[in-house]
Amino acid sequence: MRIARFRTAGSDPRVGIVDADGATLVDVTDVTGPSVRGILPRLADPEYRAALGAAPGARHALADVELLAPVDDPQKYLGIGMNYAEHAKEAAAAGIPTPTSQFWFNKQVSCLTGPHADIERPIVSPQLDYEIELGVVIGRPARHVSRDEARSVIAGYLVANDVSVRDWLQKRSPTFTLGKSFDTHGPVGPWLTTDDEIADPLDLEMILTVNGEVRQTGRTDDMIYDVYDQIAYLSQVFTLQPGDILATGTPSGIGAPTQTWLVPGDVVRAEIAGLGALENRVVDEPHAGPRPPAA
After folding, report:
1. Cis peptide bond upstream of 97, omega within 30
2. How far apart are CA 102 and CA 150, in angstroms?
3. What is the pLDDT of residues 148-196, one digit of tens each?
4. Global pTM?
5. What is the DSSP letter of 84?
6. Superfamily designation of domain 77-284
7. For residue 13, which of 71, 68, 94 has the smallest C-alpha distance?
């Protein structure tokens, strides 16, 4: 099942089930209420999923609606750094040391944006970079979860672009949080694909293009710490809650090693097999005066 949050002209956010054709959705807000986060604990129940799939509602072409970030108001958006071997090598070449254990950072949830929303190049830096990632959405409270139990707490998956501002990431703060959390730098979606739809989340193909040029390719089986390791590790520290999003690492091909930054007008497409695609245009952050010099 593919669950989307969307808005029609002048409407409040609504919840829809995307049809198999990927071109239409059925509005099921009368059954779910307006919150996807609120129904996540119930998605493990096949009877509930069947009821959602059969729910009546208005049908819309996806081309006629605005898709929103699939999860409303998550408590946490966490990312793991240097979790693909080749990416760890290119990060080291850019001066970022390779961690010796799982290396986690916060992306502030205020950065989240929709699958087709604009990405803003910030006023304070031109060093705007992309990172395609498999996003994992937690479905029920999880504390001290073993690796073997980890899949049972996953509600589903989405595509994430862990947009990064490199000089703020490595030079302007002792942690990654600031450089990972600029407004609009968390495109996710295009919908939530429930766990039962994906045979093996550790065997998915990923591709990111900029203006049609391939920049990143990889498979999720190349992770150093897979998604189950990640859930087991994090749940030792705090309770993962329904709606929490984990960005699980990016393959090689980011812009930092060659300082090939995103610029206004670029179109970034991030696609993961079976999960759909994000497509976001880069624009300058609105600003009345001239841009300051790069730091």
Report:
1. no
2. 16
3. 999 999 999 999 999 999 999 867 777 899 999 999 999 999 999 999 9
4. 0.95
5. B
6. Fumarylacetoacetase-like, C-terminal domain (3.90.850.10)
7. 68
